[in-house]
Amino acid sequence: MYRNVFLAAVTFLAVASGINATILHADDPTTDGKSVLQRYTLRYSLKTGEKLHYQVTHAAKTKTRIRGAEEISTVHTVSQRHWDVLAANADGETTIDHIVDSVEMTQQQGEQEEVRWDSLSDEEPPAIFGRVSEQIGKKLSTLTFDSRGVEIKRENHGGTKASLGMGTLTLQLPEEALAIGDSWSVPHEVKARLDNGEVKVIKIRERYTLDKVQTGVATLSLRSEPLTPINEESVRAQVVQQLSNGTIRFDIDNGRMLSKQLDWDETVVGFQGANSLMEYRSRMTEKLVDGVERTAQKP
């Protein structure tokens, strides 16, 4: 169960439903009773025909110990993907195609030989990367969202709806303008399987804070907070990989995300018996890049 998440994560096709955000304001400092606090409005602003290219890098190391047997698994993936902006109207409603152009993947499970594959090479992909290879260069989803990044309509062509803690395709922005220090939260749910086979729904709150604005770029911090009590360590082991904590840079002037970094550093003891242990260390970075689309050619 825990191994499957590593291969799934390399697809970077995270998508989830948009839910309205809640704003938490910082106190307004005043001078002579007058507010001097500047506020910033965060909105997407894309143009029909634009192509936004992103490079996504994910590296993860997981160590598990069960009944004295220890195993270390690693994965490293670099993918190139882009948004093809099909339409964008004056009201801020935007429709995009989401496409993964290429991917370089490395994975090692325990003492097994390391497996590597580059979709830009002519090599046949290893079986473990077969599903990913079938999606290269194809539309994974067509998404329509408003200027706040809230999803209006989605058509999935081959991607997955699982977020795996990587965040959604769009960043859900707050309705109100923000001052430095203001926060807003976006609720969502993840599912975990109990020892008896039942599925437990865990409510999560993603809390965003506007840390600073410099030369038109907003820096946001993100922290995921479980709202549902988690009493079973087996459930905790599944949920920790779904929690997002990190930093996002958003271009206020041009209305798009510039970069995102998410980090995980988690240890769960007793997830499969008293002496079991799981350590999960991971980092995912995503950044807007320039350049010509590089897509592996399929025969």
Structure description:
This protein is globular. Helices cover 6% and strands 51% of the residues. It is mainly beta. The protein has helices at residues 4-9, 130-133, 233-239; strands at residues 22-24, 30-31, 34-35, 39-40, 51-66, 69-88, 94-109, 115-118, 139-145, 151-156, 178-179, 183-193, 199-214, 217-226, 245-251, 256-269, 277-289.
List the helices and strands and how they pair.
Layout (H helix, E strand, L loop, with lengths): L3 H6 L12 E3 L5 E2 L2 E2 L3 E2 L10 E16 L2 E20 L5 E16 L5 E4 L11 H4 L5 E7 L5 E6 L21 E2 L3 E11 L5 E16 L2 E10 L6 H7 L5 E7 L4 E14 L7 E13 L10
Antiparallel strand pairs: 1-12, 2-3, 4-11, 5-6, 5-17, 6-7, 7-8, 7-9, 9-10, 12-13, 13-14, 14-15, 15-16, 16-17
Keyphrases for this structure?
mainly beta, disordered N terminus, two-stranded antiparallel ribbon, globular, 299 residues, 3 helices, 17 strands
